[in-house]
Every structure is written in structure tokens, then in C-alpha cells.
Specification:
The structure holds two protein chains of two kinds.
Chain A: H1 27-35, H2 40-55, E1 58-59, E2 70-71, E3 74-81, H3 83-108, H4 112-115, H5 121-125, E4 147-154, E5 160-166, H6 173-186, H7 188-193, H8 202-212, E6 222-226, H9 234-244, E7 247-250, E8 254-257, E9 260-265, E10 268-271, E11 274-277, H10 281-284, H11 300-305, E12 310-312, H12 323-326, H13 329-337, E13 349-350, H14 354-362, E14 367-371, E15 380-382, H15 388-400, E16 405-409, E17 415-420, E18 423-432, E19 434-437, E20 441-443, E21 448-452, E22 466-473, H16 484-500
Parallel strand pairs in A: 3-22, 6-7, 6-11, 11-12
Antiparallel strand pairs in A: 1-2, 4-5, 4-19, 8-9, 9-10, 13-16, 14-15, 14-16, 17-18, 18-21, 19-20, 21-22
Helix pairs in contact in A: 2-6, 3-13
Chain B: H1 3-35, H2 43-49, H3 53-59, H4 65-73, H5 82-95, H6 102-115, H7 120-126, H8 128-149, H9 154-182, H10 192-204, H11 208-214, H12 220-229, H13 237-252, H14 260-274, H15 277-283, H16 285-308
Helix pairs in contact in B: 1-5, 1-8, 1-9, 1-10, 2-9, 5-6, 6-8, 7-8, 9-10, 9-12, 9-13, 9-16, 13-14, 14-16
The chains are: A alpha+beta, B mainly alpha.
């Protein structure tokens, strides 16, 4: 299998130039792949899949038979981000995170941005994720969005856009860390000859950020709160707590006494100071949110508001990733930071505005329409791929509840070569980097590259048949592909091969 | 340590031990059958010792090699089948994989994957000895991995407690069933068949070689004494209970008040230390074992109340 027969079919390809030659950042990788003996790459792809299964890096498929965990489809060809691209993205993600944090604190307290009419008040207050219970409250250290994952896409001209913000316990970072472990085993030589930035520090950073939140507590106890072993992301919850070295708890392990949170242990109750919760707001505390929740802890919000426990991310955060609020993020950045957005938004039409809705309905065949209240690739219409009947049905839905819909022009998502039927074919990808906000803002150099595995598809969510790839961010000072050392290495390899022949 | 987590480690360890015991018991009886041409009787006690003869007869019409092996090994409707045990161990491990070492998790997960292989029933029937040896080795390796890769803290002690509780239960159960089946016919005592069967009993708990070092004849008295009261043999009741006490002391902590479970285990240990086999036989072996088992259950309930509630 050789990558030089690969056809980009006119899309922006992350590894290849339009003529099929490798981009500078991917040179070493191409050289390595092209020199592998026939069948070797497929063998390594199989070995990688077997490793995922043996490690139990799986996600549960709701409704399927117990014990039938699935591995997320994984493709061994990595996606590579050049140092210059990454510097741009990192600056943009920091900016966005800082601005959205200011925004959250503002709308739950002074509401300056609403009084100044930068965003319509009705849009915020009608947001399903808005929590009146969090009004007039500033979380410890003023941080709302501790862990975020921002979905980025790249258009046909190579421009990165933010497609979506995820402020509610975004998942997937464990795959970033595991994908890397597996690729190191798959292409060890490439790693030693490219300056690929490591991702291992994530869990250390995360724990430090969480401990930082427990102001004035010596040796604070941190726990990860999971909905339980049947949750589809349970593997990630357990992996993160193991790697951080903190307790993994479910709601029934915790109890609130005197407005403090305790864990039931073999030696009695132990106080917990910081909770990285992987449970939605709705289920956190049956006394405050959904009364039928059995996943949460009665009294948790009371302890939180009394300042005796920190919840990450802060309840109420979800309002900042509402898909209709998303359309206003450039204004939000300008308002709080006085800066222009470094990474632009995808142009977005908010259907709540009658003028914009009219525009959308007239162009449904060219638009991607999304329900603001849904995620995971559910409730969306990909106009150009839909039938006339589907579009008509969706039109009715939009008219019935305009607040619930936004529309964006169809983006020709960039592609990366994938192994398909023993050859290489381009598949569309997005990129989800992870940002941790503690004492400072940390952007993990890497991220989850999600792949739409079905030919031509642009829906990358794992619940919709998406897969993933490792993401290599190259270091700035030695971009290895054209670096002397790498060339030397390639020549060495070629010489050796010739000698063998 | 979270109580829920401790509970999972305890059961994880118990299920692994149980899988091993089932494998041992099957393996030895397979050997035994070779010595008893034309007889299929040795399977009855095996099914009985597994504690679910009734269930067997509900699902299978007759005792045959294939039926028994399938029931005891791969039948998911039998909660004590090897496959059920491994699946339960894996499920517990999955709930606490952040607590146990990755090596242990992968070891269990891999074996579980292997048992789900479609060629397993054929492999089990073609070469049962090899297959059950694999199960035993899986369990022994799991214990070794725990020993070598996990801190010997509360969690590890719960694993030890679970393993020894299961082992004590199993040893006593096997002895009880064999005693009941082997002894009633006084004419058989000392006959070749009798010796073969008592030897098989010892082998099913891996006790034969160690027994030989202490005793010359495999009489019911000697075998019972060895399996109940030996101080050093790692599958004897006395050894198991003494180890359980050590584990419980670690779990409770040095400065903790004397909780119910500690008192119960201490008393049981003292009794096994200071009772003779003659006293036990006089009181009735079956009755003594029954009383032991009920006190073991009692102790388990106390542990639950003291540490896991």
C-alpha cells in the first residue's frame, strides 16, 4: 500500500497537497508508509484494533447485549497539524475559553451583556440549559468552564472554523491519550524522527487544575462523579480517575451532611472537596433539579452554594454552548476582551430571527440545520444530502419551533487518508482539542480527530458511525519532516534497503 | 477506600477463585473417570459440590460427560459455571478498573474475550485437561498479578478476604459431599476404589502431594484432618480462616475498635486451632461442616455490615 496513489478528489486534505504529494509536515510519515512491505500496514491496523479490544478501550452501545462492548473504529493513519497552524488554534482557543467564562459569570450575575443589548435577553433566558438556580453565584476562583472541548473544522481553502463549543463534560480525551499509546506502538520509528508534541501531561494538568479550585484546603480530595458502569463513556471516567489517581464515585457513594459532601468508605465518611462531574446538570441533585434522578446526590447543590465543594464544570455552564448562543460568540469575545475572534465561527443563521429564518428556508438544500437543544449528531438535517421530503418535513419543524434551530452553509470538511478495503481513501474529519482552565488555561497539544467513516459523509459523531485518529501536533522549533536529521534517517533507511536487495 | 469499590474487589477475587475451584474439580474427576471404566457416577458429586444439582436436572435430561462439562463450564444460566464466574469477575473489574492495576484488568479482560471464542466448546471437549489447566493458570496468574502489581492496602486485603472465603467454602463443600458419598458403604473402606476416590478428593483441591508429606495413608480421618485442620496447607479451612483474620485486621486498621466481624473470625480461628479431628468426627463430620459453613456465611454478613454498608 503506497500513499502516492492517493487522490484528494478536490478536497482540502490534511496530509496531502492537491497533486497528491505529501504536505511538508507529513513527509516522514509518507516515507515510512511507502517503504513498509506489502501487507504490513494492514497488519499493524489489525494489531491496533486488537490492542483496543484487549485493553477494554470500549464504549457501551445502548440497547445492545450486555458485555458486547464495541471499540470505537480507529484508523492508524494520523492527522498531522503543523506548528504554525497549532499556534494559531491555541491562541484562538484560549481567547474563546476566556471570553465564554466572562460571559457565564456575567449572565448569572450582572447581565451587563444583556442590558447592553449585545445578545437578546430572550435568547438566553429561553435556553434549556439556563439554570435560574445558579443566579447570583460566582463559583470558586471565578471559573465556570473548567474543561471544554471545542469542535473545529477546516474548509476547502484550509481555513479553520469553530463548529461548536462543548462546555458540558465533553468526552473523548481518553481516546486521545490511548490513541497515542497505540500509535507509538504502530509507528515507533516515525515518532523518533518527528517532533510530535506529547499529550501525556493531560491528567497531571487536570488534577492540578481541579485541586487549585479547593481554595484554602490542604490536600484537597478530588473525585470523578460518574453516572455508572452502564454509561457509554464509563471507560473514560474510570480511565481519567485512574490516571489522575483520584476516586471514581457514583451518586450513591456520596452523602451530604452539614452542607458538606462525604464519600462512604470502609473506614467511615471522608470529605470530598472537588468533584469533576460527568453527570448532566439535570441529574446532579434531585432536591434542586430533576426530582426523579437517582444518579445524583441529594443536597449537593446546597453544599456547592455554601462553598464546601466545587463542581467542575459549574452547573449552568451549558448555556454557553447552546447552538443559538454560539452564533453570538464573536460578539461575546469583542464585548469582554475587546478583540476580534482569532478562529472564526462558521456563518450561522439563528432561526429565532424571522429574517434569518426566511433566508434559511429558502436555501434548505444548501444548508446544514441543527437543533439547538441536541448534540451527538442527532436532530440535524444535512440539506444537500437530504431528500426533498426530508427537507419539507424539517421545514415544518423549524416553523413550529424556530428558537430550536440554527443553520449553517455546508462546509466542505477537510479530509485525511484512511485505510479502506486495503487501499487509501479520503474521509472527512473534524478536530476536538481539549482545554483545561485552572490557575491558567492549558490547551492540550493534540485532540480527537473524528472521522466520518461512511464515504462522503460529514457526520463524525461516534453514535453515528464515526471513528477516530490520532492527532499529531508538531513542535515549533524543529518541524521534523524537512529537518536534516529526518532526511538523513530516510536516506539511511533507503541505503539499508538497497543493501538488502 | 469506597465501600462499593471494596465490595467489587472482594467479589472480583471470589469469582476468580470460584472459577479455579470448578476447573479443579472437573479436571480431577475427568482423571478419576479414566480409572473407573463404564461408570459415570463421579459426576454426581461434582454437580452437587457446585451446589446446583437441581438446576442441572432442570436443563439436562441425564448426566453425561458433555452435559456436565457444558453445564459447569460454559452455561451462562448456571451462575457458578466458569464462564459465568469469569464474566462476573470481569464486570466487577470493569466497575473498579481505576483501582486495580491495568495488568490485572487486561488479564481478566483477555481471558473473558478468549472464552467467548466460538471454538471454545470444541476445545473444551477435545482436550479438557489442557482447557481446565488454562483456567487454573488464569486464576493463579491473577492472584500473582495482584500480589506483584497492587499495593497491599485495603483493596488488596479485600481481595484476599474474598479469595479465602471462597476457598474455605469450597474445600468444606467438597469434603462434605465426598464424605457423604464415599463413606456410607463400610465394605468399601480400604478397597482400591476407595483409595482412588479419596486420592481424587485430595487432588481436586491440589492437596495430594502436600498430604503425602504429612501422612502415609489416605484414610477418611487423615484426609479430613488435613483439609480441615492443617496449619500450613493453603486450602485447609484452618489456614483460610487464619488468613482471613489477618486480612480483616488490616482492613479494620490497627487502632480500630473490635468490630463484630473481627470477633467472629477470631473465635472461628481459635476453634479450628484447638479442635481435634476425633472431636469433629464424634460430633459428626457432616454436622460440623454444616455448622462451619453457616458461621462462614454469618461472618460474611458481619463483614458487610462492618465495612461495606
Amino acid at each position: 500500500m503506497r500513499l502516492d496513489k492517493y487522490n484528494t478528489e478536490g478536497f482540502y486534505d490534511e496530509l496531502c497537497l492537491p497533486d497528491g504529494a505529501s504536505r511538508p509536515a507529513a513527509k516522514t510519515l509518507f516515507a515510512r508508509i511507502n517503504e513498509l512491505p506489502e501487507g504490513e500496514l494492514l497488519r499493524r491496523q489489525k494489531a491496533a484494533e486488537a490492542a483496543f479490544l484487549a485493553d477494554g478501550i470500549t464504549f457501551a452501545v445502548y440497547g445492545s447485549e450486555q458485555g458486547k462492548d464495541k471499540i470505537i473504529p480507529f484508523d492508524v493513519i494520523p492527522r498531522i497539524v503543523s506548528a504554525a497552524d497549532w499556534a494559531h488554534l491555541e491562541a484562538g482557543l484560549r481567547q474563546r475559553t476566556a471570553a465564554l467564562n466572562c460571559f457565564l459569570n456575567d449572565i448569572y450575575n450582572d447581565r451587563r451583556i444583556l442590558r447592553d443589548k449585545v445578545i437578546p435577553e430572550s435568547l438566553i433566558l429561553s435556553c434549556p440549559a439556563y439554570r435560574p438556580q445558579c443566579e447570583r453565584f460566582t463559583p470558586p476562583r471565578g471559573i465556570w468552564a473548567h474543561i471544554t472541548g471545542t469542535d473545529l473544522v477546516r474548509d476547502s481553502d484550509g481555513t479553520f472554523y469553530v463548529l461548536e463549543d462543548n462546555m458540558r463534560c465533553p468526552s473523548g480525551v481518553s481516546y486521545v491519550l490511548q490513541n497515542r499509546q497505540i500509535l507509538k506502538r504502530t509507528f515507533p520509528q516515525v515518532f523518533s524522527h518527528c517532533a510530535i508534541r506529547p499529550v501525556d501531561e493531560y491528567c497531571t494538568r487536570l488534577r492540578a487544575a481541579l485541586e487549585y479550585l479547593a481554595e484554602g484546603v490542604d490536600n484537597p480530595r478530588v473525585a470523578v462523579l460518574t453516572p455508572g458502569v452502564f454509561n457509554s463513556a464509563y471507560y473514560e471516567h474510570s480511565y481519567l480517575s485512574q490516571q489522575m489517581g483520584v476516586e471514581l464515585v457514583s451518586g450513591t457513594d456520596l452523602v451530604v451532611r452539614d452542607r458538606k459532601v462525604y464519600a462512604r468508605t470502609t473506614r467511615g465518611l471522608t470529605q470530598i472537596h472537588v468533584i469533576y462531574r460527568r453527570i448532566d446538570d439535570d441529574f446532579l441533585d434531585p432536591q434542586v433539579f430533576r426530582p426523579d434522578s437517582t444518579l445524583g446526590v441529594p443536597g449537593l447543590m446546597d453544599a456547592y452554594k455554601a462553598g464546601n465543594v466545587v463542581l467542575a464544570n459549574a452547573p449552568g455552564c451549558g448555556v454557553a454552548d447552546d447552538k443559538a448562543v454560539y452564533a453570538y460568540v464573536p460578539q461575546i469575545i469583542r464585548y469582554y476582551l475587546g478583540e476580534e475572534a482569532i478562529i472564526p465561527n462558521v456563518p450561522t443563521f439563528v432561526c429565532e430571527d424571522p429574517r434569518q429564518m426566511k433566508h434559511v428556508l429558502a436555501r434548505l438544500d444548501r444548508m446544514v440545520v441543527k437543533a439547538t437543544s441536541e448534540s451527538g449528531g442527532y436532530g440535524m438535517l444535512v440539506g444537500p444530502h437530504a431528500s426533498e421530503a426530508e427537507r419539507t418535513a424539517f421545514k415544518e419543524k423549524i416553523l413550529a419551533n424556530p428558537r430550536n434551530y440554527i443553520a449553517q452553509p455546508m462546509i466542505a470538511l477537510s479530509r485525511v487518508p484512511c485505510i479502506v478495503d486495503g487501499g487509501f481513501e479520503g474521509r472527512h474529519v473534524d478536530l476536538r482539542p481539549y482545554i483545561v482552565q485552572g490557575e491558567s488555561i492549558f490547551v492540550l497539544p493534540g485532540g480527537l480527530t473524528r472521522v466520518a467513516l461512511r464515504k462522503g459523509s460529514v457526520v463524525v459523531n461516534s453514535s453515528q458511525g464515526g471513528g477516530c485518529k490520532d492527532t499529531w501536533v508538531l513542535a515549533a522549533n524543529e518541524h521534523a519532516p524537512e529537518h536534516g536529521q529526518a532526511r538523513q534517517w530516510i536516506e539511511q533507511q533507503q541505503q539499508q534497503q538497497q543493501q538488502q536487495q | 477506600m469506597l465501600s462499593r469499590v471494596a465490595d467489587s474487589i472482594y467479589w472480583l477475587s471470589r469469582y476468580i477463585e470460584r472459577a479455579e475451584n470448578v476447573a479443579r474439580s472437573i479436571d480431577v474427576n475427568l482423571q478419576l473417570q479414566l480409572d473407573l471404566p463404564g461408570e459415570e457416577r463421579p459426576w454426581e458429586p461434582v454437580v452437587q459440590a457446585a451446589g446446583n444439582a437441581e438446576e442441572f436436572f432442570r436443563a439436562y435430561s441425564r448426566i453425561s460427560l458433555e452435559n456436565v462439562l457444558t453445564f459447569l463450564t460454559l452455561d451462562r444460566s448456571n451462575p457458578s459455571s466458569i464462564l459465568s464466574c469469569i464474566a462476573a469477575a470481569r464486570e466487577n473489574a470493569r466497575c473498579i478498573r481505576e483501582i486495580i492495576s491495568s495488568e490485572l484488568w487486561m488479564h481478566i479482560n483477555r481471558f473473558h474475550l478468549e472464552l467467548s471464542n466460538p471454538d471454545i466448546p470444541a476445545r473444551m471437549l477435545d482436550n479438557p485437561h489442557e482447557f481446565y489447566t488454562e483456567v487454573k493458570e488464569f486464576s493463579q496468574l491473577a492472584v500473582g498479578i495482584m500480589q506483584g502489581t497492587m499495593s497491599h492496602d485495603i483493596g488488596w486485603n479485600f481481595a484476599r478476604l474474598g479469595r479465602l472465603t471462597e476457598r474455605a467454602d469450597q474445600t468444606s463443600r467438597i469434603l462434605d459431599v465426598k464424605y457423604f458419598i464415599l463413606l456410607p458403604d463400610p465394605a468399601m473402606v480400604g478397597m482400591v476404589l476407595d483409595i482412588v476416590q479419596w486420592t481424587a478428593l485430595l487432588k481436586s483441591v491440589s492437596a495430594f502431594e502436600m498430604f503425602r508429606k504429612r501422612y502415609s495413608g489416605a484414610t477418611p480421618r487423615n484426609v479430613s484432618e488435613f483439609l480441615l485442620l492443617d496449619r500450613d496447607f493453603p486450602r485447609s479451612l484452618r489456614y483460610c480462616v487464619s488468613e482471613m483474620e489477618a486480612g480483616l485486621k488490616e482492613i479494620a486498621g490497627a487502632d480500630s475498635p473490635c468490630v463484630t466481624s473481627l470477633r467472629k473470625v477470631g473465635r472461628l480461628k481459635a476453634e479450628l486451632e484447638f479442635t481435634t479431628i476425633e472431636e469433629i468426627i464424634a460430633a459428626g463430620l457432616h454436622e460440623s461442616i454444616e455448622s462451619f459453613q453457616s458461621r462462614l456465611a454469618d461472618l460474611t454478613a458481619a463483614v458487610r455490615k462492618d465495612f461495606l454498608a
